[in-house]
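Q: What does the predicted 3D structure of Fbox domain containing protein look like?
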Amino acid sequence: MDPRLLESSTEELNAELARLETQRIELKSALREIKFKMGDIRRLVGARNAAQHMEDFHLQTTIQELRHEEETISAEQRAFPAAGLRLPYEVILEIFSFLRAADLLKASTVSRAWHTITNDNLLWKHIVTKKWEKYSKKILNDRTSIHEDSSNRDWKKYFRWCESQNLRWASHLDYLTDVAESKRQATLGRKFLARGNNNAALKVLQAANRLVPSEEIESLIKSIQSGDPSVGQRLPEWQCQHCTYINSTSEGSCDMCTLPRFS
């Protein structure tokens, strides 16, 4: 074989190998770049998926909030039609303050929302002070509006207590408040004495029989029997409805009979 031909073939082979090596390096570099770009693509896809997930989550949350708000508004509208106008609670409370106690009790059975409103302590404070308006300053110690709660009193419970007292002291055993001692007493024709305790129990005393619970009442009965004109000095000043008003100087009808007891 011709050595020149062999040498030429060797050079061509080496050149081909060099070309292949160059292509291999280029392919390896291209593959590395492709892998890098694939990593970027995966990161971008992951970020996009995460963003889509967050967007879907926020969308679902918004939908749930809107549905809840719609249900709440619908419930409020069913309970109180004006709630659709988004009235403040204070305004609704003011509207209910025009109702009487009996109407409030009926309204409390309409719905849960109305039950909450009609049992508001400030509302019942307003009802109490309105019914006994003449003595509201004594009730509160100072005049306050419906939105200024001046005490921790359960006003609805207190209203029921006052009403029960009025019922027990109805007819001939009249309701009365002793200003100094916070006790209720009444004389009927200067022959009988009625006395009420804090539990609304009544005790009627006949002067002739001297049925007395204390020295104070015994002294009063003796004074009534003897016609002592100074009987009013033996007890603190007191008032009652449709009965005798006694003090040290005068005797006449009483106009303070609707004053409830506060203690």
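A (community wiki): The structure tokens above were generated from the sequence. The mean pLDDT is 63. The chain is about 55% helix and 10% strand.
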